[in-house]
Amino acid sequence: MATEQTxxxxxxxxxxxxxxxxxxxxxxxxxxxxxxxxxxxxxxSPMMKDAASSTGQAAAAPTHVQGITxxxxxxxxxxxxxxxxxxxxxxxxxxxxKVTMQFEMSNAVLDAxxxxxxxxxxxxxxMLLSSKSFDDVSSVAGKRALKRAIMNGTNKYLTSGQxxxxxxxxxxxx
Length: 174
Hints:
By secondary structure, the protein is an alpha+beta fold. It has two domains: 1-60; 78-173, 2-Layer Sandwich (Tetrahydropterin Synthase, Chain A). It is 56% helix and 17% strand. The chain has helices spanning 2-59, 110-116, 118-130, 134-137, 140-155, and strands at 78-80, 84-88, 95-105, 163-173. A hairpin with a 6-residue loop joins strand 2 and strand 3.
């Protein structure tokens, strides 16, 4: 009799724990689904809108060398540039921008020309970067416009080829 009473007490305890465990699992699943939905609406949707709007702007970029469209890489040689650290023009306070980039070149001969004209090219890029504000460079569209401006500013010094694409490997605003 005592063993039967102990077994029924254990069964009742198990039955009480089962609904509580089920409710806890359901609450966790609902919270995870809500977090995923929030991430989609607040993070992914704005990124897709920026990418879609900047795609239309990139198509309007002028061509500098016949047959080569700036901003459209084709697998040419890559030139690693030194990092650039500049102050941004910001009314809210001092902000710094650190950018490391690589140039995709139309031909390998351009590497030596970029080395020879490095002071002019670096000066052009520093002047361009330091004229920007945080709002100018914080969006995806702003970064793409900055790439086009750097490419155009660099290409005006080059005669043996063109920079056809710029890749940012580091882009930090502090």
